[in-house]
Design a protein that fits this description.
Order of helices and strands: HHHEEEEEEEEHEEEE
CATH topology of the largest domain: Pectate Lyase C-like
Number of strands: 12
CATH architecture of the largest domain: 3 Solenoid
Number of helices: 4
Largest sheet: 9 strands, parallel
Low-confidence stretches: 1-15, 44-50, 148-180, 351-355
Mean pLDDT: 76
Number of domains: 2
């Protein structure tokens, strides 16, 4: 039927009656709503199919990599006892576990929260199995996960990934950080700490045991570990892998990363750009806002780290200790009138909305 035709076949002159005009309008509205509902259902069906295919593809790849790692862990029991050969086997497996963890981080934006938690738990279990196996077979050697592909570059030493936690999910010391001899700032009070990474890609950086300090990091990192900070401000360029934060209080963090996990944080504000949903555990009075850092060359750094696009995930926080369907009381969105507006760490200027 042509959309210009009279759908009721009533002569046009009869629509001068107000009742008929009202009925005609209601009928057209119903027809329009029905058509819109069909379009919406079609779009939801297509979106659901795409989401299902993405999820199915992820779990297929995840399962394949997990089975391969478990098989290689089992093979280590019969591997040669020469320490050098065992170390080589362990480093290859640790690189595969790091790849599996990266797979989870890169796909967590569309996975349900439960599946993200389950996948990360699997990665943690594999790390712990490898560490346990290393302790059994090479008890006197110190072992650490190493980033795949890290190479020595001019002026930058080869860096290692952080070790897995020695605590299980049931342990009273769950997921406490173990700090290694990576570059970083440690044990400072009341100082401005600055580091610039140009012309090279640093594997990891550690910030720990600081009180009333300001930290400024310019350039790209692969991983960042933050432990025991009080009343500090931390401004960080893009991190290509993960950021792990533990035991912080009264702090401000401005950072961009593919994955951010926060443990035991109190009364702290987080200005984030993140590819996956931020994760908090055992935290309270933490607030979130979008990334607001600038310095000369930051756009190139963000693009290099695949963090040049805002995902909006800074506001999609998962509280792993809040299992109810209602909003967690442990975190909130930072009110706009209380946010830092611009942080320029290249000119050492910080501007607030109130200035």
């Amino acid at each position: 039927m042509d959309e210009n035709e009279n759908p009721t076949n009533v002569p046009e002159t009869e629509y001068s009656d107000p009742d008929l005009q009202r009925k005609h309008s209601l009928m057209l509205e119903r027809l329009s709503n029905r058509h819109q509902n069909r379009l919406d259902n079609s779009r939801r069906s297509e979106s659901g199919s795409s989401s299902f295919e993405s999820t199915s593809s992820f779990f297929s790849r995840f399962s394949e990599m997990k089975c391969s790692i478990e098989s290689r862990l089992a093979d280590c029991q019969t591997a040669p006892s020469d320490p050098a050969q065992l170390k080589f086997h362990f480093e290859k497996i640790s690189a595969s576990i790091s790849d599996l963890e990266k797979l989870v981080a890169e796909n967590s934006y569309f996975l349900p929260s439960y599946d993200v938690r389950s996948s990360l738990k699997t990665v943690s279990d594999l790390k712990q199995s490898l560490e346990s196996l290393n302790s059994q077979l090479v008890p006197k050697k110190k072992f650490a996960f190493k980033n795949k592909g890290n190479k020595k570059e001019s002026g930058v030493a080869e860096l290692k990934e952080p070790p897995p936690s020695k605590c299980t999910d049931d342990s009273p010391e769950k997921k406490r950080l173990t700090l290694w001899d990576s570059p970083g700032f440690r044990g400072k009070v009341g100082q401005v700490l600055f580091e610039e990474f140009r012309g090279s890609e640093v594997g990891e950086f550690t910030i720990s045991d600081l009180d009333s300090c300001e930290v400024r990091l310019i350039g790209c990192l692969r991983a960042l570990f933050i432990h025991r900070l009080k009343n500090c401000q931390v401004y960080v360029g893009p991190v290509m892998g993960s950021i792990l934060i533990e035991e912080v209080e009264g702090c401000i963090f401005v950072m961009a990363s593919h994955q951010i996990r926060i443990h035991h944080a109190k009364r702290s504000d987080f200005y984030l750009r993140v590819r996956s949903r931020p994760i908090i555990e055992d935290s309270s009075s933490v607030r979130f806002s979008p990334y607001c850092l600038t310095y000369e060359g930051i756009e190139e750094d963000l693009q290099h780290a695949s963090l040049d696009n805002e995902t909006g995930n800074w506001a999609n926080v998962d509280d792993f200790k809040w299992l109810r369907a209602t909003q967690s009381p442990n975190w909130s969105i930072l009110p706009e009138n209380q946010r830092i507006k611009i942080v320029d760490i290249s000119t050492q200027e910080i501007k607030n909305n109130n200035t």
